[in-house]
Amino acid sequence: MLNCKIIIVGSSQEALKFKPIDEYDVIAVNQAIDITREHTDYWFTLDPSPSNQKIMREQPYDCRYIAAVPNEFGDPDAIISCMRNKRPDNVHYLERIAGNGFLSSHYGLCEDQNQIATGNSAYGALNLAYHLGASEIILLGISGDQSPKFDGTYCECLAHLPDLFESAIPQLTERGIRVYTANKITKITCFPYTDIFDR
Asked: Which of 43, 84, 113, 131 is most buried per CB count within 10 Å?
């Protein structure tokens, strides 16, 4: 799937601008699948929260479900109760690689196709797009701030996101991958803005 174009859709308010564009595949991150719906090619998460487990179990749309979750997910003796649930079937599981950053963030993308850098599900989706051989990536609904998500809920601290995304630039540049943000309001300013969803 080399030289594909990919839209990664996160959960900030501007994700509501999403519309399908013929030549782009879509990676929906977590609850963003409620926006992308039948236009989703891949669903991705790093977070086996109850709401994401529900998506993994029900698989509401015909797309490929991919997760890079903690090793203890599915262990009946896991410390966190929701982690004790059986891993849902028909999900492609990749290895989640931690680093030394905030929330164990891994700065820089994983090169191994079976591994995903952790720190935030939208950043993990960037690593997935990298593995898929994307030539162009558009980030939508990824603001990196504390504003409410499209469903009115809030994320925990996202202050590490600008540095996390910026850490991927050397690898993206080396492969000639163009990355744009379609968010007018975002803390992730290391990528140029595109008005593709405003036209």
From this structure: 43
